[in-house]
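Table S2 (text version). Query chain:
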Amino acid sequence: MRSVWGQIEMDTFRIQLKNHSDTEELGRFLGKTAGPGDIICLDGDLGAGKTTLSQAIARGLEVPENSYVTSPSFAILHEHEGRIPLYHMDFYRLQGIDEVLDLGLEEYFDLSGLTVIEWSKRAIEILPDERLSLEILRNDDESRTIIIQATDLFCKKASAIFKKFHVHHNQGTFALTQE
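Corresponding structure-token output:
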């Protein structure tokens, strides 16, 4: 399905992650397949799993174990060295795009690492057109629904997610199953 998020047309997919292990596996896959200049946006309520997914992305990027990835809510930005640099941002405490611009955070979008942004919708107007956006929804159990929105450049990555995780259509959404 095509939708408009911000002012960018994106393909939209839904997947179900049954448990913490599925979230870890998805994050590691995203980190392993990330390339220089990629941007992954993570949104969802408090406690939805944005930082957990960011930590798994870091493991996929081969960020050393001694470089513990925490939520950068107070620092706004944490940098970690891995296969490529990880620029982990959190816009939760920012009031809008002016603060992002004042801090110069948009300059990281053009560097040679992976930029992961938690609470990205707070500055959606200045995000690069090409990005992979994941909204994490908590369900009543420990499962999560992930709404993936991918611009054309990232549609191949979204397709690879489905192939990797053997995603099957199930009553209007996709269910994640691993072998």
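Notes on Table S2: DSSP finds four helices and ten strands in the chain. The longest strand covers residues 8-17.
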